[in-house]
Design a protein that fits this description.
By secondary structure, the protein is of the alpha+beta class. The chain has one domain. The protein is 47% helix and 18% strand. It has helices spanning 37-48, 53-58, 71-88, 95-109, 118-136, and strands at 2-6, 12-19, 22-30, 143-147. A four-stranded antiparallel beta sheet has the order 3-2-1-4, with helices on one face.
Length: 148
């Protein structure tokens, strides 16, 4: 599946999802000072080979904010939230603190956490740094193309 992130001028960026044999889907991504939320999904899902929101779309589900609960994708969403929050605050928390926060978040939401250790978390952080550098270089109206 191809993911084309277009940097917008106003309050939104746009993600266009392209799958073979299916009409492209567009998702407006509210600007959030860091990379778009769905790009954080890409960093987590691609790096950890975990099936979350994007993986479910790749497997044929329609892009929707109301997807049915599934254990692995729920765990991915919680990890995306923790990674995103860390990025908003400068990505300075220790890996152990993030793992603890992730487990707490999963417990609060009643979903099983993914098996994430410090090495996996650091790999996601490295992917986030690479995506941030690439996204920062994209001009308004430009596209960052990724593949999942």
């Amino acid at each position: 599946m191809k993911l084309n992130f277009t940097k917008g001028l106003g309050k939104f960026d746009v993600l266009e999802l392209q799958r073979p044999g299916v009409a492209p889907q567009r998702i407006e991504c509210p600007k959030q000072r860091i990379i778009p939320h769905d790009m954080v999904h890409y960093a987590v899902e691609h790096t950890l080979a975990a099936r979350g929101f994007l993986g479910r779309i790749k497997d044929g589900e329609a892009a929707s904010f109301q997807m049915h609960s599934q254990a692995q994708s729920d765990g991915v969403e919680r990890l995306v939230e923790v990674i995103q929050g860390d990025a908003w605050s400068g990505a300075s928390a220790s890996a152990q603190d993030l793992i603890a926060m992730y487990h707490l978040t999963c417990e609060a939401r009643g979903c099983p956490p993914l098996a994430v250790d410090a090495a996996a978390l650091n790999a996601v952080r490295a992917a986030m740094a690479e995506l941030t550098q690439a996204w920062d270089a994209v001009p308004v109206g430009g596209v960052l193309a990724l593949e999942l």
